[in-house]
Fold each of these.
Amino acid sequence: MKKTPNVAILGATGAVGVEVLKTLERRNFPVRELTLLASGRSEGKTMEFRGRKLTVKAVTPSSFAGVDLAIFSAGATRSREFAPHAVKAGAIVVDNSSAFRMDPAVPLVVPEVNGADLLRHQGIVANPNCTAAILCVPLWPLHRAAKIRRIVVSTYQSASGAGAKAMAELESQTRDVLDGKPAKKEVFPHQIAFNVFSHNTKVAENGFNEEENKVIEETRKMFHEPELAICVTCIRVPVLRAHSESVVIETERELTPDEAREILSRAPGVKVVDDSARNYFPMPIEAGGIGEVLVGRLRKDPSSLRGLAMFVAGDQLLKGAALNAVQIAEMLLQR
């Protein structure tokens, strides 16, 4: 890919697309020409990038002529429709949707975990599910040190995972409930304000919902461990934009909390927040808006000979989506 590529963002006006735009600017990603694409409903809107106002265009199969890098954040249907056109035009697609994640020919990448997989891309690179990405960043260095045999994770997932309209629904429902009004449900199937509920995706025949199965399958793929034992429970919580996860791992060799803390303190993309004296550990309110994944509450699991428990928090829109996509693009520039 060119060192100063022509870049397109598909889904530029959505929650993730907005963060991609901000992240490109914040990280000073080299861009020769930037094209903002979305559905026809957003055509004509303007967005600012590096002091210039850019007009959003409606995406068509010919939108990718001359584009070197296309970051897609418009959902699986549009990715399946337009990614082949972008690749045919000569672009590398970094796709934020679920469309290609489990395709054996498509690398599924978190740069801190399996960046080397980018070497085998054939025009498309998949960005993982946000929950899986946030989980894998702190677990990968522990896996390398002691080989994880089993993962049990329960999630506390923010409204941002369902998009900008879901975030707005959380805010409006909170105001309504505090004012004594009924909570209006439009995005979520249940009230999100002052409530928690099982992740709002279809439950499969194996009893796990789509989100849980994504975490299982994608973690195995990124770790290159197809038989890795993983049990996941995904829950929506009334938080705006950072996911949290309660994680228990079992390792091949014993890993003490102190050793794990030392490994994580040196791991890229991780920030250890583990102050027992102050009862100060990862919180979504502090994970929101930063690129690092917070990890703490490191302690021995007394129910297992080689078990370790921890608590993790990461920004769903950043490391779970936009930042990871831009980091992939940065690695592609170096190859």
Amino acid sequence: MKHRITWLGAITAVGALVLSGCSTASTAPSTDAAGDLTPITLQLQWFAQAQFAGYYAALDQGYYEDEGLDVTIDEGGSDIVPQDVLAAGDADYAISWVPKVLGSIEQGANITDVAQIFERSATTQISLKDKGITTAADLAGKNVGSWGYGNEWELFAGMQKAGVELGDINLIQQAFDMTGFLAGDIAAAQAMTYNEYAQVLETINPDTGELFQPEELNVIDWNDEGTAMLQDSIWANADKLDSDADYADNTVKFIKASIKGWIYAANNPSIAAGIVTAAGSTLGESHQLWMTNEVSKLIFPSTNGVGMIDEAAWANTVDIAMNTKNETGATIITTAPPATAYSNEYVTKALDELKADGVDVMGTDWKPTEVTLNEGGN
């Protein structure tokens, strides 16, 4: 579904724009030959939620317009593959996980990761303390949940690294919620830090009569296990980057405005959560704020500047994609991806412009806020 926000200013923006003293002033928007803003479509990989807060904030705060872009954000869904939409020419940019796109590239999609927005992975495997599951090695002999659909590879890689084969566990097809976990059918469930983990903490523990607490859970973090894979990236059309100078220029502008949006969201999580809610998200208020805060942790502090693609992290993702097998013995890809699969050219230009404007693109001093979750995420 298409969702264009046209209510700029409906939510009053307060607080700092950047992580360290930056003016919000900008030059006049660039325009196309007709004197109008250049229309741009961004395809998300899921419905409107704070996982995409930076893009909605950039739209709401006018950062895209400042760059001469008229951006429409298309929501995703279970039947939408963002990279396919991009490759088909039905969107100018798309948001998707690197391992999922690597498979599409091997199948012929000529697209490029032009900005690695999430530096860290949000995928975890969670369990109750009494299950005694603290590392991937402890999953042997347990009911282990996975959503599938390309979300399983960090789990499989972590298990295989620990010497646990798929035949050593009872793999459960997990719904996109925590119902099976809370019912006791799944001992270790897949959970994103910004979503399903919070769903558990928003639920009453029948043994205590209070909401579940973090200390009642064990969390396997694939960043710690060494099998984290790169997730939300901005993808562009590789053919157009090579042949269309205007598209290449607009790519820099789009990345620049998006990074400003993410910085704004990190510094103004309550406002950013409200912007996403106004854009159509149905998540509860405290859950939306939690998501905004947790997503910011995946970006800040940044090692090399927001959006820069770390070569070691990319290589690790490719290695896992080529060498980790699923239950059928298949891997995500069979050969190394082409050189066009990623490029730091455009994000480097965007970061240089932001730094010249005095924007802190590292967020070294950024601190997450404390979020109190309410029952049901309300």
Amino acid sequence: MTFYTLQILRFIASLLVLLFHLNLIYSGYKGVDIFFVISGFVMYYTLFHRPRPTALKYLVNRCSKIFFLYWVALIVLYLVLPFKLDSSFLKTFLLIPGHDSVIGVSWSLSYELYFYFLIGIVVYLMPGKYQNFIFSLLFTLSSVITIINLTPLTFKGTFINFLLGPNFWEFLLGIASALLSIYQHKKIRPDIALLAASLGFLLLIVVAIPYSNVFSHVVYGPLSFLTVSFFAIYEEEISITKKVSNFSMLLGDASYAIYLFGPIFTLLVTPDSCFLKWIVVFSTICFSVVFNRLVERRFLTWSRKMIYNKKECA
């Protein structure tokens, strides 16, 4: 099942980040929190509630999805605004944690990769009977680290915080939202689910907490969890028209391109008026939709088939 409401949420999340980079919305960085929760939801749903891909396909699909568009964005940025290519650039190129984020949002991709690898290890290398226990243990540890970070005994700036801190906690909230949607949706009326999702989304949009504030994650994470969980539950109980589903897929599929190219377009144009900023928003969305349809989707399909076929012939 494709969750079309989550596709719309992905688009909104990328739009919030773009508006933040254009200084049109002060707290647009909350779009990253939404992305993290959706990623956790999608990964768990894909690996536990649908036919599971082989380990090779899982690894290739996840890495190609992240790196292809990221490397294209790096090339575009270098061609128009050359940056320093030195020994440290390898970390940036491979999204190693702590890399120089020449594209402002690339730090979050290091977390995405880490989460993909970790959940892949649990799913493909651990016995099935222990997997939910491992997720529960990780959630407990991450919750403890997140709570400690609210105190002077913070783990911020440490490798432990990268491994088990608030950003990882939001991925795990995504797994929890998938579990709620999969196993409890029959117990929740659609109108109640829609009300809860709408309330969570409204609060997520209107609440503005500085990213540097230690309470940022513990507010945006649960609100994202509430929004994602109950929109998914609502969608499981209703039917979506073909036009709505196609439109949501169009925007959702382009969200990653918007996320990456938005900061680049902002640097290129450096708009100094509100009108020009909205022109950048519109242009970024249009470019991302076209690039996703004509280049990204086709290249990923072709390259993945090439890799799978070579592996099968080996």
